[in-house]
Amino acid sequence: MSVISGSARFTLDGKTIFHSTSSSLSLARALKERATKDTNGTEVAKGIKSWSASGEQLGVLELPPGVTDSEAFAGLFEIYNDDTDTLIDWEFVPKDTTGLFKYSGKCILTALEISLPNEEDATSTYAVTGSGVIEKTTIA
Q1: Which residue in 43, 94, 96, 127 has a CA-CA distance of 20 to 30 Å to 82?
Q2: How many Cβ atoms sit within 10 Å of the Cβ of residue 61?
Q3: For residue 104, what are the domain limits?
């Protein structure tokens, strides 16, 4: 049995989320209901798939000098504030699979929040909604 490590990370636009503390992926499938004169009750069939992801991280505004492979709140804000139709890349590589495969898809950053409690570290959260399906790809 291979349990996914709690230290697995999401990537947005090719950059990991800086000081990530938690991540969540939600996969859903709509159902189509069918009831005809020839059925006994309602039958269901598979419908459209959808997905979303979210995460929480330490509320770091800017990246430290020299860090270019991560995204802090300011970078997430730039992605959120982009009003073009360009979708962003999303990726999840489970850490405990020794890099055998990854999940990836295209998405839109739909929510960004920062919490600033008194006398405590700030945290920020983000949410993305997928456009299209998530693909599982073998990593060579």
Answers
A1: 94
A2: 12
A3: 9-138
